[in-house]
Amino acid sequence: MSGHNDAIEDADAAIVEGKAPPSRGRPLDRERILSAAIDYIDDSGLAGLTMRRLGERLGVEAMALYRYVQGKDELLDGVVEALVDAMDVDSDVIDAPQDGWQDFVQRLAHGVRRVALAHPKAFPLIASRPPEAPWLRPPLRSLRWVEIFLAGLEAEGFSDEAAVASYRAFSSFLLGHLLLEVATLGADVGPLDVVDEAPEPEGLASYPHVQRLRPALSIDTSSVEFEEALEELLNRMALMRHETTHD
Amino acid sequence: MSGHNDAIEDADAAIVEGKAPPSRGRPLDRERILSAAIDYIDDSGLAGLTMRRLGERLGVEAMALYRYVQGKDELLDGVVEALVDAMDVDSDVIDAPQDGWQDFVQRLAHGVRRVALAHPKAFPLIASRPPEAPWLRPPLRSLRWVEIFLAGLEAEGFSDEAAVASYRAFSSFLLGHLLLEVATLGADVGPLDVVDEAPEPEGLASYPHVQRLRPALSIDTSSVEFEEALEELLNRMALMRHETTHD
DNA sequence: ACGGCTGGTTTACGTTGTAAACCACACCAT
DNA sequence: ATGGTGTGGTTTACAACGTAAACCAGCCGT
Question: HTH tetR-type domain location, by residue (chains A, B) (predicted)?
Answer without folding.
Answer: 27-87
